[in-house]
Fold this sequence. Notes:
Elements: E1 2-8, E2 11-20, H1 25-36, E3 43-54, H2 56-71, E4 75-79, H3 83-91, E5 99-100
Parallel strand pairs: 2-3, 3-4, 4-5
Antiparallel strand pairs: 1-2
Helix pairs in contact: 1-2
Amino acid sequence: MQISQKIDGSRITLSLTGRFDFNTHREFRDAYEAAIKTSGIKELEIDLASVDYLDSSALGMLLMLKERAGARNIQLFLTGCKGAVKQILDIANFGKLFNIS
């Protein structure tokens, strides 16, 4: 998986590309930890438009991120959700926990 970051005012977007699974947990954690520690950030967007695979460990990583972001009063958004990724998020009822588009 590749992760790119874009800052737009008080919003950081992390765009993920490829497989989002257990093998990428350290890379993902490092990226979001740096993002939520950035001064002045109020919103964090995780762009999943280019993710082609998502497993249960990725869901767990998103839940950990939600907890960390919430502790810093940062709103979290999951965007670009489509296809199999959207289906997995729907099955896991993540729509009740996250702002998903």
